[in-house]
Amino acid sequence: MRVYDIIEKKKLGEVLTDKEIAFVVEGYTDGSIPDYQMSALLMAIYFQGMNDKETALLTECMAKSGEMLDLSAIEGIKVDKHSTGGVGDTTTIVLAPLVAAADVPVAKMSGRGLGHTGGTIDKLESFPGFKVELPLEGFIENVNKHGVAVVGQTGNLAPTDKKIYALRDVTATVDNVSLIAASIMSKKIAAGSNAIVLDVKCGSGAFMKTLEDAKKLGDAMVRIGKEVGRNTIAVVTDMNQPLGNAIGNSLEIMEAIDTLKGNGQGDLTELTHTLAANMFVLAGRVATVEEGLSLADELIESGKAIEKLREWVASQGGDARSVDDYSLLPAAAKQMDVVLEETGYVAAIDTEMIGKAALVLGAGRENKESIIDLGVGLIMHKKIGDKVTKGDVVATLYYSDNSHTEAAIRYIKDAYTFSTESIKKPQLIYTIIR
Ligand code: URA
Ligand code: CA
């Protein structure tokens, strides 16, 4: 078999065989296929596309390029959740204890990564003492004992996806639905769960800017799940404004705690309940999403969800008192209100720009070496549809030194667009693909 012939075949729009796809992934993994040939093949795929079977096979081969986690020592159906990423997204920290409180095991690996705030793993480190690194046995033991564990990605999951992604990044071949779907799903499959709930974001703060593209991506991932035998559903949700009001690490932890106590803001509560309800269905815990939603409500109202958070934090070495005493969490030294000069209704928010405001204050990483300040960030007081009168506070900054507050204020003010007419609040859940 020659790579040249495989590139030629895809260039002409033909379907690649299982053997050809496996040959390419193996060859690229072991270095026998050079970057220039892989680049040419990726560009051919970009223009000619792949069918469901080719996409699923590429996914499986990339998943198997490294370690495949074996979670069989955990009883029950393990349902993983993945978000395609946005700004101020605190869902995992609400979902993990909420789902575990229903006796559905949560065995999750999460990332740090670059971004406007830290990833889930960075946010969790806001709990004093919380250990995000556990050996695999400890991870599984914690899930069996407490129903939940969330750790930083260990081992070597889907290394070939990482290598291919780096190549796509420099060859203008990232934005192809089959390639994105295969990339995301290869990591989820290697992470060992039986079923997967995907939160596919769309809007100004998301990877997919339009509903149409988000639906295509969700659909492609659901079909991969079907082909490889992992029950998968995709919830397509709005990211035309940050989720919840808090953007920052310990600020988002407080927001997650509030949500688990039943005092959350509308959109984070709606999203986490919807995702939890779908996870309950996939786990066989309830028969319908409606029953799942009622169960989520009940777990919040009875205090079982927040009690599970305390248990979880303690089980990973964290100080569970911080769940009830926020003064134990990291805090910024200073606060400042951002005041608006406009009167009207919030018509749109440039989500990326709000994210940048949090980033310049030190809430996220600009590069791999950046050090996150867990206490800093911002709280938004106005979201799409809200009425604003000149002099209103639109956001509060939490910061430790003055050097970047001016830039943050500029970003926040520039992010808002106003209308003189009243604006409807945007829909949060667009569709669910099964
Ligand atoms: N996220 C991924 O993990 N892979 C992609 O290809 C795009 C976004
Ligand atoms: Ca938030």
Can you give me a brief rundown of this structure?
This protein is of the alpha/beta class and 434 residues long. 45% of the residues lie in helices and 16% in strands. It has helices at 3-11, 18-30, 35-48, 52-63, 91-100, 120-124, 136-146, 159-170, 177-190, 211-228, 249-260, 266-282, 289-301, 304-315, 351-361, 405-415; strands at 79-83, 106-110, 148-152, 195-202, 231-238, 246-248, 334-339, 344-349, 377-380, 387-388, 393-399, 416-419, 429-433.
Strand content: 15-25%
The arrangement of helices and strands along the chain is HHHHEHEHHEHHEHEEHHHHEEHEEEHEE
Q: pLDDT below 50 for ≥5 consecutive residues: which ranges?
A: none
N- and C-termini, Cα separation: 38 Å
> What average pLDDT do the residues reach?
96
What count of helical segments does DSSP give? 16
Rounded to the nearest angstrom, the radius of gyration is: 22 Å
**Which secondary-structure class do the elements indicate?**
alpha/beta
Largest sheet: 4 strands, mixed
* Overall helicity: 40-55%
Q: How would you describe the shape? A: globular
List of distinct ligands in this structure: uracil, calcium ion
How many individual β-strands? 13
Strand order in the sheet with the most strands: 1-4-5-13
